[in-house]
Design goal:
This protein has 388 residues and is an all-alpha fold. The chain has one domain. It is 67% helix and 1% strand. Strands 1-2 form a two-stranded antiparallel sheet. The chain is globular and about 60 Å long. This is Peptidoglycan/LPS O-acetylase OafA/YrhL.
């Protein structure tokens, strides 16, 4: 990155908000095409191959973006409890509503509730347990919030430490996070055992191996810290070496790389290497007010709904096929129509959840109650905001 005078933090970055929806759409594409959820036959094989790593890519983007925007929008003199309150009211109301809906759907379809995994999911600690049942119980996409919860708890101290580091130290920190991302799959391959899962990759990997690189919060924290470091560099005036369009092309090429490397590398945080430059480039594009395809009104509005979209889409792509696809002899047109219906339903439910749950909670409980000088306007913050 090239250096220029320090950038005032707090400026709005609408391109990052628009990119949030693109990432959420990747996760939807993965879940709606995995194992022929909607489309079967040769077309299903093609879609499953194309989007086979889209969910992993989207979640990694959310983890990097979360670190970036939290650092970017950090308020001078803020306290840890204030940060935690804002993040809690951002994620937990949506989580609680979708958790209750997931429980109702399980009961409606005569499925049993596993007590301990259910409690773990309610309190967002399910990703700490190396048992396949835990992160897949209730609204399965909420596992990423379990990781985000750790990130949020550590953020005040991480930020305090990074604020004391000069540019050279920031680059060394970024290199250390990249090393963690690359070493984790190696550790998982050679140091972790378990019973292989026949339906994952080539059938040679255990859930414990996948859990360590994909679900385990301390390992995924490297992507969050990488996003924080990128924000600190941009704030300090170190611009990314490439503009937005080349950075987008790097991200697309990186997806091809992730789809071809060994499975544990592809599902781990390797995507952060290709996505962090995109996040930084999009932020600088907004600061310079240059052209951006992600800054349009529609993309920004969809980006505002992206967390709600993420939280509802897993339920839609699970239960809609269960009721309307499985056991039916449907033609290609009908299956495509149901896939479009699923996307439309996700958008409708996301709008409702954002409008009637997320926004009121943030307005009511997320504002800063202090007599101090008003802070700069915060950047819209994502979770996973993955699986993101």
């Amino acid at each position: 990155m090239t250096s220029s005078p320090e950038t005032p933090r707090g400026a709005r970055l609408p391109s990052l908000t628009g990119l949030r929806f693109a990432a959420a759409l990747l996760v939807f594409a993965f879940h709606s095409t995995w194992q022929h959820t909607f489309i079967d036959g040769a077309a299903g094989d093609v879609l499953g191959s194309v989007f086979g790593h889209a969910g992993f890519y989207g979640v990694s983007f959310f983890f990097v973006l979360s670190g970036f925007v939290l650092t970017w929008s950090a308020r001078p003199g803020d306290t840890a409890p204030r940060v935690w309150r804002r993040r809690f009211v951002k994620i937990y109301p949506n989580h609680l509503v979708t958790f209750v809906v997931a429980g109702a759907l399980l009961l409606l379809t005569a499925q049993q509730l596993a007590p301990w995994p259910t409690l773990a999911g309610l309190f967002l600690v399910q990703s700490w347990v190396p048992d396949v049942v835990y992160p897949n119980t209730m609204n399965f996409v909420s596992w990423s919030l379990s990781c985000e919860l750790l990130f949020y708890l550590c953020f005040p101290w991480l930020l305090r430490a990074l604020n004391r580091v000069r540019a050279r130290g920031l680059w060394l920190t970024a290199a250390a996070m990249v090393a963690v991302i690359l070493v984790a799959p190696v550790v998982s391959t050679f140091a972790i055992g378990g019973t292989p899962l026949p339906f994952i990759a080539d059938g040679s990997l255990s859930f414990e191996q996948i859990w360590f690189v994909y679900f385990f919060p301390p390992v995924r924290a490297a992507e969050f810290v990488l996003g924080m470091v990128a924000a600190r560099l941009v704030i300090a005036g170190h611009r990314p070496p490439i503009p937005l369009l080349p950075a987008l092309l790097v991200a697309v090429a990186g997806y091809a790389v992730n789809s071809s490397v060994p499975y544990l590398f592809g599902v781990a945080g390797l995507a952060a290497l290709w996505l962090t430059p995109l996040v930084a480039a999009a932020a600088v594009t907004d600061l310079r007010a240059t052209r951006s395809p992600f800054r349009g009104r529609t993309m920004v509005r969809l980006g505002e709904w992206s967390f709600a979209f993420y939280m509802v889409h897993g339920l839609v792509v699970t239960y809609l096929p269960l009721w309307l696809v499985q056991g039916r002899d449907l033609g290609a047109a009908s299956r495509i129509g149901l896939l479009v219906l699923a996307l439309a339903l996700c958008l409708l439910l996301a709008y409702a959840l954002f409008t009637w749950v997320e926004s009121p909670a943030v307005r009511r409980f997320g504002s800063r109650r202090t007599t101090a000088a008003p802070p700069t306007a915060p950047v819209p913050v994502t979770v996973l905001e993955a699986k993101e």
